[in-house]
Design brief:
Organism: Tothia fuscella
Order of helices and strands: EEEEEHEEHHEEEEEEHHHHH
Number of strands: 13
Structural class: alpha+beta
Strand order of the largest sheet: 1-2-3-7-6
GO molecular function: ATP binding; protein kinase activity
Radius of gyration: 22 Å
Shape: globular
Protein name: Calcium/calmodulin-dependent protein kinase-like protein
Keywords: Kinase, Transferase
Helix content: 25-40%
Strand content: 15-25%
Largest sheet: 5 strands, antiparallel
Bound molecules: adenosine-5'-diphosphate, magnesium ion
């Protein structure tokens, strides 16, 4: 992590004192920051460079437009990201607090998630117990239900790096080993955490609406951008794009339960083929002790045909989500 001394100062961002860097991407840096006015306390600020290299022209000096073309183009999608986030209000979605800009940068001020990425928690714990996985995935699903059913928005980039959390004071530190890996006499050494009664890991929040899209006008209940004469493929498009989030939800649930993703290959080409065919397995021994009900749910999400894939309502009504919810409420 960067030391305080190395943190940049941005003209136009005097209201905030940057405290530490929390994430960095190709075009953006995210900082934890303190509000000097005291209104928000702490927040996360995503600083995005306004201009990107004009990739349509690149450095191709042979291109006829090379001399005329601007070297850089202004990023348009960042404004869309902000516009979409502005419409959203849900406990499991990172809130947009403020938006600002100067000549060179956009500043997206976001509700701070001090727990950071869910991704790091999977790495730390190697995998999540079924209770903890349910506790996490149900919250993600509640956010998706809101996005798909109420807001008419698809996220399109659901993955552990974009799932952040607000931690409870008590965070689990270890997992029970799968039965197949436990020594007889050390059988309960790894025992931990019901997860849910204690508040689990905390409040999960979906972040990063950089690839999100409005697909349905929730006011008029019509597909976006069309007035009448809506073609069937537009209506289908809307349904298919929701199912993209459901596939990703399945990948996240799979990963939570066993600690590795359903599709992996060192060659991108092979990986792409595996995904296209929906080629995954519940790999032994890692999946041996995971309930058939959890596997059933995962398989209804990792279904290649988007028409047969579970939608958010079916997901939330699955026995693995519902029954155990009652069980854990009783146990709490
Ligand atoms: P990118 O489009 O570059 O992926 P993100 O919005 O996903 O941008 O932010 C990048 C990273 O910054 C996240 O993966 C996370 O680690 C961190 N981050 C983003 N927003 C927050 C936040 N509100 N609270 C804490 N960390 C955040
Ligand atoms: Mg991201």
């Amino acid at each position: 992590r960067e030391s305080k001394g190395k943190l940049p100062r941005y003209p136009g961002l005097e209201r905030w004192t940057l405290l530490e860097k929390m994430g960095d991407g190709a075009f953006s840096n995210v900082y934890r920051a303190k509000d000097n006015t005291g209104q928000y306390g702490e927040a996360a600020i995503k600083v995005v460079r306004k201009f990107e290299m004009n990739s349509s022209q690149g450095d191709n000096v042979l291109h006829p437009d090379f001399k005329k073309a601007p070297k850089t183009v202004e990023r348009a999608n960042i404004l869309k990201e902000v516009q979409i986030m502005r419409q959203l209000d849900h406990p499991n979605i990172v809130k947009l607090l403020d938006f600002n800009e100067n000549k060179q940068y956009y500043f997206i001020v976001l509700e701070l998630c001090p727990g950071g990425e869910l991704f790091h928690q999977i790495v730390r714990l190697t995998y999540f117990s079924e209770d903890l996985s349910r506790h996490v995935i149900t919250q993600v699903a509640k956010a998706l239900e809101y996005l798909h059913e109420d807001a008419g928005v698809v996220h399109r980039d659901i993955k552990p790096e974009n799932l952040l959390f607000y931690p409870t004071p008590f965070i689990p530190t270890r997992n029970p080993k799968p039965k197949s890996e436990q020594d007889e006499d050390k059988a309960d050494e790894g025992e931990f955490v019901k997860g849910v009664g204690s508040g689990g890991i905390g409040v999960i929040k979906i972040a990063d609406f950089g690839l999100s899209k409005v697909i349905w006008d929730s006011q008029t209940m019509t597909p976006c951008g069309t007035v009448g004469y809506t073609a069937p493929e537009i209506v289908k498009d809307e349904r298919y794009s929701k199912s993209v989030d459901m596939w990703a939800l399945g990948c996240v649930l799979y990963t939570l339960l066993c600690g590795f993703p359903p599709f992996y290959d060192e060659s991108i080409q092979t990986l792409t083929e595996k995904v296209a065919r929906g080629q995954y397995t519940f790999l032994s021994p890692w999946w041996d002790d995971i309930s058939k009900s959890a596997q059933d749910l995962v398989s209804h999400l990792l279904t290649v045909d988007p028409d047969k894939r579970y939608d958010i309502k079916q997901f939330l009504n699955h026995p693995w989500i519902k029954e155990s919810q009652e069980e854990t409420t009783a146990a709490a």
